Model the fold of this input.
Amino acid sequence: MSDEVKLVEKSRIMGKERIGRAMSRLASEIVEDNQGANGLYLVGIRRRGVPLAETLVRKIEEIEGKKPLFGIIDITLYRDDLSTVGANPIVNRTELDEDIDEKSIVLVDDVLFTGRTIRAALDQLMDFGRPKKVQLAVLVDRGHEHRELPIQADFVGKTVPTKKSEIIKVMLKEYDDVEAVGIFELPSN
Amino acid sequence: MEKPFHRRDLLGIRGLSAEEIIGILDTAENFREISAREIKKVPTLRGKTIINLFFEASTRTRTSFELAAKRLSADAVNISVSTSSVSKGETLIDTALTLDAMSPDCIVVRHSSAGVPHQLAKISKAAVVNAGDGTNEHPTQALLDAMTIREHKKEFAGLKVAILGDILHSRVARSNIHLLTKLGATVKVAGPKTLVPRSFEGLVDEGLTVSEHLDEAIVDADVVMILRIQKERQDSAFFPTLSEYAVHYGLTQERLELAKKDAIVLHPGPMNRGIEIASDVADSARSQILDQVKYGVAVRMAVLYLATGGR
Done:
């Protein structure tokens, strides 16, 4: 996303408290569905999936008294648009220090839109081994109609129907001044 | 976000900015993890063709480039050409045009004459990466040396680096001098007068001193880089005998004592044990020679990734 063009915020759909509550609910749903934190492995997708996954790890530990495994995936090398995006984008590090074989992986990202990022993350994950299963948790799901691949989320903070031209921005204290989710648009002129 | 590298070709370190060098090193850091995986392959350069065009014998550099290409899923073709039967100039142009007709995305070239990669870059539509041209430059070697240094020393500013041995014939030395001085290190080169000409001081604006005595350069050094005696590039008039060279200019434990306590030892390989480097130094804990080889693959993956990007 270009930082040069100033985006216009149309509406604010989540604030700090709502994000916090949604994350608590996601943590509960994940441990309920997986019957605890045993073999649970949360993998954040760079960038904004990483602090969200860290938050979920913390909240799950509070609920279960056991800390799930944690890792980071950078999907740059698995993108399907490398030949069209111009100069190659910055590569960041993938950190899956714990073996993923036979683990219950939960991929964590901020927004689910076309599904292409998740496809790249899944491909990369399979290069590291054979997990027992892979689930997907996102803070915001922009809805099925934008999906370009057969991918859906298992755990959703909030579903937000959007137009394709709109941009959903998840702002987190790790990268932004505020903690919020907003719908943005390119300026009309 | 700032792109680490804005150009198509990597012809030398001389023309790069400090920011570009750091950008390549940062990218390379993030490629290291791939070689530690069980499946050492990412799909990034699928469908790209990389030609390793070597007019000069090479095992480690060629293998390193080949592995880097393969771990990125590019198709790598190795072409070894003997220079002896090739007349220069026209033939290079013909070779370039012939290769271009096969639509490679990147040509990695090594040649015994300086400037060949630059010529090739003018002719070819592919990105050109210099894998060593005569005594001019060997940019990926300097980058992997820098990666090894950064791993141990974190910062380059204020570092004292000694580069020892056959400086005259060394493209590794030239690329390293450019890189290290651009990043704020001070470099002292030393070796026999015949192999370390005074005129070398003019290579860069500042940060470089030349000495005849190894000890002068080693004193207080953070990094000691010893170069290979390039027997193949000499007509043996540069020093009397190899054993005499070993006595006066070989890196021994005793000499290394003059360096800082935590100094590291680098050698671009292949080593002449017992000549420019004593065996116990090569095998000591200070020696990072095998790490250099390891980082070489990551650096070349980064360079191929950046060079073939977005065209």
Summary: Strands of chain B lie at 49-54, 75-80, 106-111, 127-133, 160-164, 186-190, 208-211, 223-226, 264-266.
